[in-house]
Amino acid sequence: MAKFTLREEQALKVEELLKKMTVAEKVGQLHQLSPSIVGGFDVSFEELIEMLTEGRITNEEFGQMMEGAERDFHEEEIREGRIGSFLLDDPEKANELQRIAVEESRLGIPLLIGFDVIHGFQTVFPIPLGEACTWNQELFEASASIAAKEASSHNIRWTFAPMVDIARDARWGRISESPGEDPYLAGVYSRAKVRGFQGKEPGGQEHIAACLKHFAAYGAVESGQDYNTVSMAHSMLHNGYLPPVKAAVEEGAMTVMAAFNDYNGVPCTVNPYLLRKVLKKDYGFEGFVVSDATAIKECVAHGIAADLADASKKAIEAGMDMDMNSHAYHNHLETQVEDKTVSIETLNEAVRRVLSVKMALGLFERPYVSEEEMKRYEELPKEHKEAALETAKRSIVLLKNEQVLPLRKDQKIALVGELADMPMEVLGAWSLGGREKDCVSIYQGLKDAGASVTYQTCCGPESDFCKEALMEAAEDADVIVAVVGETSAMSGEAASRSDLTLPGQQQELLKEALATGKPVVAVLMNGRPLALAWEQEHVPAILECWQLGIEMGHAVADVLFGAYNPSGKLSCTFPAVTGQCPRYYNHPSTGRPAGKSKFTSRYLDAPLAPLYPFGYGLSYTEYRYEGFQLKETETAVLAQVTVRNEGSYGGEETVQLYVRDVTGSLVRPVKELKGFQKVRLSPGEAKKVLLSVEKKDLGFYNDEMEYLLEDGEFIFYVGGNSRDCMEQEISLKF
Ligand code: NOJ
User: Fold this and answer.
1) Are both 347 and 405 inside the same structural domain?
2) Pocket lined around ligand 1, Cβ cut-off 6 Å
3) Domain that holds residue 361
4) Whose CA is nearest to atom 3 of ligand 1?
5) Does residue 247 lie in a domain region?
6) Among residues 546, 580, 614, which one ends one of the domains?
7) What share of residues in the chain are helix, strand, coil (percent, to 5)?
8) Whose CA is closest to atom 11 on ligand 1?
9) Which of 108, 162, 606, 703 has its CA 20 to 30 A from that of 265?
10) β partners of residue 574
11) Which of 327, 349, 374 is the last residue of a domain?
């Protein structure tokens, strides 16, 4: 697809509308609100949030209270044309508010209803970090397209996804929402997501506007602490963090959300370098930028704005088009334009962008959904569930297997671990549309597969270990399957962790399970890379299953029993110990790479190497790589390698191509992914795989944002992960 731009007749309509609008109505288009909670509890809403944060009430209790909350939907302000967008998942209410906007406001401009549809809506797919392990753009696109169908049936026409923050620090809870640490893989992911959400032509009934977030470099928050500061050279930003953003803009993404963090001292919300120069000027982005929730207001706490009025002026001038929930534009922008503190051209530009997206989405023609549409996905269609299962199976990564897996159906399984029987936990963070009735837990999945299984809770991420329960479960068992990991609330927003080992007493559970002498399989359910050095040393089989979405139980059963041969490859490095974070494979070269000598780049008390490298993932079969050759053409370098399936299971391998630019005018990464290809191989089969890298893609940005292609030596690597590769050197002139 091409960059988002309006057709001529649509652009004319936007200009006609702009001419008719008062300043107040223009400001209204830039004001986004959520329904305000105005009562229904015995305590104030702020106190309620405090109670939740301090753990005095559980997430479930909070959810129940919210269902009964009284809300203000700001109907009067909509009627006056003072609201442009609403965050909402309630199709009836959406129709009602839309009717006020369209039929009762002076100019009849429809609202844009947005919602966080992050990894599926009602059909919840794996968390993005897990889905990225499929390395499969067809699946990336299909899950977004299903999410768009379901969300649009609720009159949600805008999602705050894809999140494409390059995340290299596993302590950061939001790594779960991201496609991982690699800019190339994230670029493939972000393009596919935009295609899936928006369709070929924006404006299709079953499509919604994508919102790239969070712009920019949110994944690099210092020490993995959420909302923290980010400082990095422009070259690192452009080479390491922005490729998926640029890719998605080129693919037609209609909106972008600015990140909470500051970038080099200026919060992204009011950062003209990012919003005006990079995004709007250099990338030619014609959609609109929305702030993150209350982020304009937070510029006061950042200490970059004196008060809300100052924040309003700084934001609009920096190129921030829509204010999410700060009330900064709503309270101040009209006066600021009238007294010429902010120019009318600046206001017009932002309004033009918002109206353009509304126009392109077809909201003026179709502001409502019908009763029939609203009910369409009350029961999920078979194809949606099948797609969820397919993606879930392919997101599973086999980390270790000492001839324990696959299991046989006649083996008696002792299933232990609280997470195995918590259906809603399969959904993971940011899965607001998920419903318990659609969720298949691991316990359920094993039963559905006809397994001979007994279940005991024994221990959870937040509950104590009970040895008697384990002994009871294990007594007659042939194998122990221990489901361990994190709850969904332990990753996602505001969920950074400083210790990445298994939370609570779950390691105790594994130790005692091993002490029974029976084979043990650790099935991990988590939202981030964990530090699993102990588990790798002791547990014979480890399966990384993330939070896989509604079909989790069936997907895990398929892999455990070998109905599906695992093919997932890690989208992020797993550190050996937390202190290694941030640990990522495409690190800039140092002058003293780790070696035997003390005076090299390493730790005294921990290995330097990660536990599982980026791109890693085992299978029930073995693949051998041979005959790696390079060939240069005028415009590309072609890499050819033969991959042979040497085991007894058919499977799918992801052949990965990495490049190192040996000498450059800036320090270059030790290795960078430049391509990959999936190959399906029957037992004993060998296939030639050809990967091509365009020469123009072998350059990099300097700090002035110039793209440089520098002659010299390049090392090409191919392999099944970023560590274990064959290599060939080539000298190139551009
Ligand atoms: C805050 C989060 O940072 C962002 O990702 C999300 O889309 C908005 N809130 C809206 O819910």
Assistant:
1) no
2) 116, 160, 213, 292-293, 493
3) 8-35+73-117+156-374
4) 292
5) yes
6) 580
7) 35, 20, 45
8) 116
9) 162
10) 612
11) 374
Whether residues 631 and 567 share a domain: the answer is: no
Q: Is 174 within a domain? A: yes
C-alpha 291 – ligand 1 centre gap (Å): 9
Which entry of 116, 169, 182, 292 is annotated as an active-site residue? 292
Calculate mean pLDDT across residues 10-32: 98
Task: Note the pLDDT of residue 109.
Answer: 98
Whether the predicted model's global pTM rises above the 0.90 cut: yes
274 and 330 assigned to the same domain: yes
CATH number at residue 351: 3.20.20.300
**pLDDT of the residue at 51:** 79
Rounded alpha-carbon distances, angstroms, from residue 148 to 2, 131, 197: 19, 17, 5
By most ligand atoms within 8 Å of CB, the mutation choice from 165, 197, 257 for ligand 1 is 257
Whole-number Å distance, alpha carbon 35 to ligand 1 midpoint, is 15
Tens digits of per-residue pLDDT, 680-694?
Answer: 999 999 999 999 999
* Pairing assessment for the beta strands 541-544 and 397-401 based on DSSP bridges: antiparallel
Which CATH number covers residue 632?
2.60.40.10
Distance between Cα 449 and ligand 1 center (Å): 38
Assess whether 174 and 231 both reside in one domain: yes
Same domain, 420 and 473: yes
Angle between helices 295-302 and 308-318 (to 10 degrees): 110
Rounded distance between C-alpha atoms, residue 172 and residue 497, angstroms: 7
Residue 68: per-residue pLDDT: 76
The verdict on residue 522 lying in a domain is yes
Per the listing, tokens 């909509």 go with: 78
CA distance 242 to 232: 12
Joined tokens for residue 256? 């972008």
| Closest protein CA for atom 4 of ligand 1 | 292
Which ligand 1 atom is nearest residue 163's CA? 5
Question: Residue 559: helix, strand or coil by DSSP?
Answer: helix
* Model confidence pLDDT, tens digit, residues 620-639: 999 999 999 999 999 999 99
Residues 500 and 367 in one domain: no
341 has pLDDT over 80: yes
In whole angstroms, give the CA distance from residue 733 to residue 497.
46
Calculate the average pLDDT of the chain: 96
3-state secondary structure 106-150: CCCCCCEEEECCCCECCCECCCHHHHHHHCCHHHHHHHHHHHHHH
**Ligand 1 atom 7 nearest Cα:** 160
**Distance, CA of 433 to CA of 419 (rounded, Å):** 20
Handedness of CA 475, 556, 174, 34 (dihedral sign): negative
Number of domains in the chain: 3
478: annotated active-site residue: no
Asked whether residue 544 falls in the same domain as residue 630, the answer is no
Residue 316 has pLDDT above 90, yes or no: yes
The number of the ligand 1 atom at minimal distance from the alpha carbon of 161 is 7
The confidence band for 157, taking pLDDT boundaries of 50, 70 and 90, is very high
Same-domain pairing of 108 and 227: yes
Distance CA 504, CA 484 (A): 10
